[in-house]
């Protein structure tokens, strides 16, 4: 009991004393050793991080493919053709999942690619590892690069390369560096692109977009779900809730209701203006009830939001703070209200609002595959979101919305609540405090940073850096120029993977570009040169501390000076040698990725040899003003005590990180499972379509191939331009009067390929030209809402009516 108490007191001294005594530091110095458990946990962390990043990337790919599938099935439903295309996409989808990414990673290990051991390839790999380390740790390069590109390109670049470079912030170090990049880029954007404070709201700033999409999605930790799911679910489950605030809507549903109940046509006009609708007592009563309902449910949302400030990810809050401070710096005359409205635009409108309007799209609620929200549910949520949006920006209902005047007082009260919420959200510790960044000296961290990146992304980044080299680093002695010079010109995908060159446009090239490599990042400029005296002194200090740690364990003494001056006994030397042998055995077992870049302490030295080395180092450090002999080097002992404390914190943090990564991974796996259920649902749907078509074999479009070729001769259709004009398919022909239309003949016949038609044009019996018309293209135009198109560059055609004609004549529907 006494021993335990003493140990507790000693540890308190170590933590709290300004100058902990040597005896106390000696007692806890063993905590700086890396145990087997340390290595095991680091290995688990690396494995989990790789899994999380691979999972995120494969889920993103699946999601994109499923969205495309949605569109294709939508086109199929409206025009039951192009089934072949949907089927081929479905096959691609089924093959696509996590397996693909891991296979690509494995494939790369077996080939002679970037990781092959030839000296030239090794140098190339190292050069990339140095380049990506510099990009990752120095945010100014990427911050400037983002604004050298057009916005559509930069968004794509951000989504793939940048989040990859920081492993989707899957650990503390990378989250810190990513936020540092966001901060630098946002300051750069406001400094160089924003001329008026409102532009942040009216424009679509790249960095803001990235920050929101990052905090709303990729990592599967959905803070928005915690904040909004309970209230969204409550609104969706309330089947009686019907929020209508448009007087004309209310009027029409009232008239419909009367007609349904009486079975007689209403005497009231069906089309009315908002004023006419409001003249009816019933409409006013219903509107009042609706407004009351709306206030009640909006209040539930508001209450859920304003107490959630601690649930909002640190990254969102930190960005809000940077946004507010940077704008205040650039526009010192702006009032706090103006600044807080812009913070509100980020925190409420961009981050939360879309998740309220479409909770199914943002994982706020779980829907079964194929399930969707009803029109009423969507309208209710949309009305609530509109109210909250007005409250967050302190905007009143005026003009066309004058009938909503009674809500204005409620809105200005709600704004005050939002205002306090936005202020509280901006009140966060700095990055350095939050992540304790300067704490981990090399004594503590085991792992070198590793990123998982595709060959295509490596090449893309390399190309962009070369294209914009001078814009991102104007100083000719900037280290990035040296690294780009080492790399030389941009290699091809094939050469990096170790394959033979492919012809341009070969589809395999794209697949090759997705091959992933893991790069273990390293700092080329770690080796201190003459120019880098400060770095030199830090390295020397670190090495000296390591030597001291080894020496004070084995030799007693109250102060460092006393230990260095006393001679080591033979017993102490023997004990020391044994410890060094144990260390050598453990080092031999250390996984490659965790070995320090270069051993900084020579363990072949004797105990006395290390003491001599400490002495000469201390002399140099004293000359550099880094240590003070007059207080018997107590500052160095204090530094070691700080390392011991930090090592403990680091271990605690690592445990927390493991738990967090496991949760993230579980979230991502359940999302993958959901996507797989959706894939099955789609496949089942397509199978049903195929079966239905099979039962209709007689029709031409059902069976591509030979039978189609045979029939195609019989089923070509001829029309005069006048007939097509009558049907509304043809709108006009340039430079030709309508009375001449009878002399123009169009012949439409199916070609060998499914869904492709040959269209021939003749004038006065003379063949002019032939073009191919793809049915899929027409559907896509229709899907995009394009009403008219040009044929032969002269004839203007109505797309919908042309589709109708083709369906009727060639597909029997």
UniProtKB/TrEMBL annotation:
Matches recorded under CDD domains: RasGAP_IQGAP1 (cd05133)
InterPro entries cross-referenced by the UniProt entry: RasGAP_C (IPR000593), RasGAP_CS (IPR023152), RasGAP_dom (IPR001936), Rho_GTPase_activation_prot (IPR008936)
Example GO biological process: mitotic actomyosin contractile ring assembly actin filament organization
Domain Ras-GAP, first and last residues per copy: 160-393
Molecular function terms from GO: actin filament binding; calmodulin binding; GTPase activator activity
Gene Ontology cellular-component terms listed: cell cortex; nucleus
Protein name: IQ motif containing GTPase activating protein 1
Organism per entry: Hucho hucho (huchen)
């Amino acid at each position: 009991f006494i021993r335990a108490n003493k140990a507790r007191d000693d540890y308190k001294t170590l933590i709290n004393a300004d100058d902990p005594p040597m005896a106390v530091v000696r007692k806890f110095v063993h905590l700086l050793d890396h145990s087997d458990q340390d290595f095991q946990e680091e290995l688990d962390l690396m494995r989990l991080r790789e899994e999380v990043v691979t999972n995120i990337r494969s889920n993103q790919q699946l999601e994109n493919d499923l969205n495309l599938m949605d569109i294709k099935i939508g086109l199929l439903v409206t025009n039951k053709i192009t089934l072949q295309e949907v089927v081929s996409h479905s096959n691609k989808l089924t093959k696509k999942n996590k397996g693909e990414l891991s296979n690509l990673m494995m494939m790369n290990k077996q080939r002679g690619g970037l990781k092959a051991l030839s000296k030239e390839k090794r140098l190339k790999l190292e050069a990339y590892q140095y380049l990506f380390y510099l990009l990752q740790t120095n945010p100014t390069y990427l911050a400037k690069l983002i604004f050298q590109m057009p916005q559509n390109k930069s968004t794509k670049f951000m989504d793939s390369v940048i989040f990859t470079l920081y492993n989707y912030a899957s650990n503390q170090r990378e989250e810190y560096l990513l936020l540092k990049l966001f901060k630098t880029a946002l300051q750069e954007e406001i400094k160089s692109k924003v001329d008026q404070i409102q532009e942040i709201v009216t424009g679509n700033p790249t960095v803001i977009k990235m920050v929101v999409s990052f905090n709303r999605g990729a990592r599967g930790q959905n803070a928005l779900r915690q904040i909004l799911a309970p209230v969204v679910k409550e609104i969706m489950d309330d089947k009686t809730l019907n929020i209508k605030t448009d007087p004309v809507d209310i009027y029409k549903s009232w008239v419909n209701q009367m007609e349904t109940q009486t079975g007689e046509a209403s005497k009231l006009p069906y089309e009315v203006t908002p004023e006419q609708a409001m003249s009816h007592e019933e409409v006013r009563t219903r509107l009042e009830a609706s407004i009351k309902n709306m206030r009640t449910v909006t209040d539930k949302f508001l209450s859920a939001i304003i107490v959630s400030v601690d649930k909002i990810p640190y990254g969102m809050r930190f960005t809000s703070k940077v946004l507010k401070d940077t704008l205040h710096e650039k526009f010192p005359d702006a009032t706090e209200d103006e600044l807080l409205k812009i913070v509100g635009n980020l925190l409420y409108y961009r981050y939360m609002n879309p998740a309220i309007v479409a909770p199914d799209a943002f994982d706020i609620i779980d829907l079964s595959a194929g399930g969707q929200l009803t029109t009423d549910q969507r309208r209710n949520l949309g009305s609530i979101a509109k109210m909250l949006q007005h409250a967050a920006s302190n905007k009143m209902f005026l003009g066309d919305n004058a009938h909503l005047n009674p809500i204005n007082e409620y809105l200005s009260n709600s704004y005050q609540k939002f205002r306090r919420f936005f202020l509280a959200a901006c009140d966060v510790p700095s990055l350095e405090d939050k992540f304790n960044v300067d704490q981990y000296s090399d004594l503590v961290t085991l792992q070198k940073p590793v990123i998982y990146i595709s060959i295509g992304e490596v090449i893309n980044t390399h190309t962009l850096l070369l294209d914009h080299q001078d814009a991102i680093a104007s100083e000719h002695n900037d280290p990035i120029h040296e690294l780009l010079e080492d790399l030389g010109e941009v290699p091809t995908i094939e050469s990096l993977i170790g394959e033979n060159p492919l012809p341009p446009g070969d589809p395999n090239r794209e697949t090759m570009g997705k091959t992933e490599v893991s790069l273990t990042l390293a700092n080329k400029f770690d080796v201190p040169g003459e120019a880098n005296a400060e770095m030199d002194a830090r390295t020397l200090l670190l090495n000296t501390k390591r030597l001291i740690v080894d020496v004070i364990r084995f030799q007693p003494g109250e102060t460092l000076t006393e230990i260095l001056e006393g001679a080591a006994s033979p017993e102490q030397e023997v004990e020391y040698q044994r410890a060094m042998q144990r260390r050598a055995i453990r080092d031999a077992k250390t996984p490659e990725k965790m070995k320090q870049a270069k051993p900084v302490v020579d363990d072949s030295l004797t105990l006395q040899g290390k003491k001599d080395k400490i002495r000469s180092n201390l002399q140099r450090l004293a000359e550099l003003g880094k240590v003070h002999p007059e207080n018997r080097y107590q500052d160095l002992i204090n530094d070691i005590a700080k390392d011991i404390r930090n090592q403990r914190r680091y271990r605690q943090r690592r445990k927390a990180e493991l738990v967090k990564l496991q949760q993230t991974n579980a979230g991502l796996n359940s999302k993958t499972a959901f996507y797989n259920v959706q894939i099955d649902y789609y496949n089942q749907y397509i199978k049903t379509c195929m079966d239905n078509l099979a039962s209709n074999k007689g029709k031409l479009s059902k069976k591509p191939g030979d039978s189609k070729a045979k029939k195609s001769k019989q089923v070509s259709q001829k029309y005069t331009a006048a007939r097509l004009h009558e049907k509304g398919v043809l709108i006009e022909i340039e430079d030709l009067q309508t009375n001449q239309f009878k002399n123009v003949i169009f012949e439409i016949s199916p070609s060998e390929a499914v869904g492709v038609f040959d269209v021939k044009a003749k004038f006065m019996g003379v063949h002019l030209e032939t073009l191919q018309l793809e049915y899929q293209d027409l559907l896509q135009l229709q899907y995009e809402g394009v009403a008219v198109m040009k044929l032969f560059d002269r004839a203007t055609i109505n797309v919908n009516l042309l589709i109708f004609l083709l369906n009727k004549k060639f597909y029997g529907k």
